[in-house]
Amino acid sequence: MLKRTLFFVFTLITFMGYSQEREETEPVKVIIPAEKLEAVSNVDLQKFAGKWYQVAAYPSRFQKDCYCSQAEYTITEKGYMKIVNSCRKGSPEGKLKIANGKAWAVKGSNNAKLKVQFAWPFKGDYWIIGLEKNYRAAIVSDSKRKYLWILSRTPKMENDAFQKVLEVVRAKGFDLTKIELDSQECK
Length: 187
Known about the structure:
By secondary structure, this protein is α+β, with helices and mostly antiparallel strands. The chain has helices spanning 2-25, 45-48, 159-171; strands spanning 50-57, 66-75, 81-89, 95-105, 113-119, 122-131, 137-141, 148-152, 180-181.
């Protein structure tokens, strides 16, 4: 019995020493909660409607292996927005992939927060968190910062303008290392 107890104590001390050693040598990861994400104050959906090119984004499962991603927004007679998302699958010359959906404004958001739906009954947040005053560039995310899209009215964004957008994205608490550029050089 004494041998079992001594073996147990020895094992416990060895394990505790190993655990303490690992804790001291491993880097400490500090998680600081980000401030609450805010959408822009107001969006004119008539001006927002039209074609947008995805310049960069956080990778997402539904856009995996996509090139030349674009979105077309059209306001319907019923008051919601029709969405047609498209991309080339696998390469810039790949097969065209299209996803149809709809979006509607969240009450009290001045059209800056939308709900999107591509398959019933699933809905997602689509918050416009940055918008150039002439509606030439937009930053879109969800309420939890899981998704991020940087959009432009043109296939390419000037480097100075893109750097300004990245500063806004950084200031809003996004990890810039997760952003992937999207090629718009498709045929």
